[in-house]
Amino acid sequence: MNVFVQLWKSLYSPKDIARFRFQGIGKTIGYLFLLTLLSILPTFYYVSSSLTEGIRTTSALLNNELPPFSIENGELHSEAATPIHIDQGGFTIIFDSTGKVTSENVEQFPNAIALLKHEAVLVAGHQAQHYSYATFPDVTITDEDVRAFIAGLQSLLPVLIPLFGFVLYVLACAGKFISVCIFAFFGLILAGVLDKTLRYRHTWVMSAYAITLSTVFFTVMETVQAVVPYGALIHWFVSLVVLFLAVKEVPSANREI
């Protein structure tokens, strides 16, 4: 059966997931690689787009709209008496040497970069990264240094973005394989409770397809930039329910398979 047909059937048919249990491990691993690739595409797109736009916008603003500044002894210093807040096509730039803006304020924006009193904050696709100035206590950084750094980042983007995509994919694959291995153990428990003749390799294959519905759902949510509360809990619950229904479709031990 075509891998895309399997993906489609795994969205709604526990009976087909049960039938997949005799499939080879190699094909199932290939399916997991494909499912993982599809699941990270929205994240990769939004983060790489936000990073590219953020660096371009920051470079322009440093040259035109932000005052001269320096970072000394873990603090941002400038002559600006009030925070500077600039919106550029869905990307937010915040400059605050007064200490009035907090990192929590910055995290409310979907895409933003902020130079705050004690740290820099980068938000891309609602994911925030914090960089404390205290990491470099004996170093003085000026706006000229930051301009040079941003220019260097721009030149490295053709390398950094593919590298980010590769690392993201590897980590996502590792997470998917670990979760499938855990679900497979739950599958054995369900098989024992429901009196089904299944081995670990069978429940492993079934688990790989049982996570499809939840994975596709969260991929769609990420595509439309919708935040789902308790996402991890929902993912595990839905996947376990699908796996339970699939195990139920397996003939019982006292019946002919």
Q: Secondary-structure blueprint of this entry?
A:
Elements: H1 3-10, H2 14-19, H3 25-64, E1 69-72, E2 75-78, E3 84-88, E4 91-95, H4 103-106, E5 112-115, E6 119-124, E7 127-132, E8 141-142, H5 143-193, H6 200-210, H7 212-223, H8 231-248
Helix pairs in contact: 3-5, 3-6, 3-7, 5-6, 5-8, 6-8, 7-8
Provide an overview of this structure.
The structure is a single chain. The protein has 257 residues and is of the alpha+beta class. It folds into 2 domains: 3-45 and 163-248, no CATH class; 64-158, no CATH class. It contains 8 helices and 8 strands. The protein has helices spanning 3-10, 14-19, 25-64, 103-106, 143-193, 200-210, 212-223, 231-248, and strands spanning 69-72, 75-78, 84-88, 91-95, 112-115, 119-124, 127-132, 141-142. The strands form 2 sheets. The protein has a 5-stranded mixed β-sheet, covered by helices on one side. Strands 2-1-8 form a 3-stranded antiparallel β-sheet. A hairpin with a 2-residue loop joins strand 6 and strand 7. Helix 3 (25-64) runs antiparallel to helix 5 and helix 5 (143-193) packs across helix 6.
The gyration radius over C-alpha positions equals 24 Å
Global shape: elongated
**H/E series:** HHHEEEEHEEEEHHHH
Summed up, the helix count is 8
- The count of strands amounts to 8
- Major sheet strand order: 3-4-5-6-7
Query: Helices and strands: which structural class?
Result: alpha+beta
Average of pLDDT: 90
Distance between the termini: 21 Å
User: What portion of the residues fall into strands of 2 or more residues?
Assistant: 5-15%
Largest β sheet strand count, sense and barrel closure: 5 strands, mixed
DSSP helix fraction:
55-70%
